Each structure stands twice: as structure tokens, then as C-alpha cells.
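Regression report. Comparing outputs from two consecutive submissions.

Submission 1:
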Amino acid sequence: MFILANLITAIVQILDILLSVYMWVIIIAALISWVNPDPYNPVVRFLYSVTEPVLRPIRRRIGIGLGIDISPMIVILIIWFIRSFLIKSLIELAFRMKG
């Protein structure tokens, strides 16, 4: 059973790293959007292509009535919830499988 527990732990750690990196990508994209970047810049295009598929559905659901785009904050809160609840729960499950 410890092999399955170690596999779950490894997968969860990789998922945690990927979620952390994606959260920082969203933060960087939001900060760059404040300065009116060049849309043809490769970095801006990369950030846009990576974040827009996640942010666009949230923007459609909440609407932008305030004039401020809060979709990055919502995605960061979702990532934070996943990291706080799901990741920790899976790690605890893996430890219980070992024990």
C-alpha cells in the first residue's frame, strides 16, 4: 500500500507546484495588463494564451459592471482553495494509507 501512497504524494506535490506556478502566471498577466502592453510581444502573447481560457468564462459569468476585472482574483482564490483543501486532503490520505 505504501507504493500507492508514495505515488499519490508525488502526484499531489507536482500538482501543487503547477498550481503555484499558474497562480504566479495569472498575477504577472494581471500586472502587465495595467500598463497596456504590446499585444505582439511574445511574452504578452504567451501570458494571454495561457490565462485567457480560464479567465474568459469567469468574466462572462460575473460580468464587468464595476469597470475592474476581478476574474484574476477569483481564479487565485479558487487555486488557493484547491491548494488548501484538495492538496492537503490528498496528502493526509496518502499518509493514512502508509500508516
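Submission 2:
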Amino acid sequence: MSLLFARFCDNQTHHRGQTYEMLTASGSGAPISDLFLMPEDA
């Protein structure tokens, strides 16, 4: 089960990297989505 979970996380990271690459290649800025609540905003 842990191997399956590790594969899922690795695959998700791969696709996030692909999305980032496509956004930056098109000239768009990629949003920072995993830090939606910064400590200074709290």
C-alpha cells in the first residue's frame, strides 16, 4: 500500500511540473497554489 501511495504522489508531482512548464512557456505566470494562506496575511 505504501508503494502505491508513493507512486500516486510521484505522479501528481510530475503533472504539476508539466502544468508549470506549460504556463511559463506560454508567458503566463504560474500561481502559487500550495501557500494560499501566508502567515503575514493571517
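Expected: both submissions complete independently.
Actual: both completed, but the second showed a warning that disappeared on reload.
Relevant detail on submission 2: The chain is about 55% helix and 0% strand.
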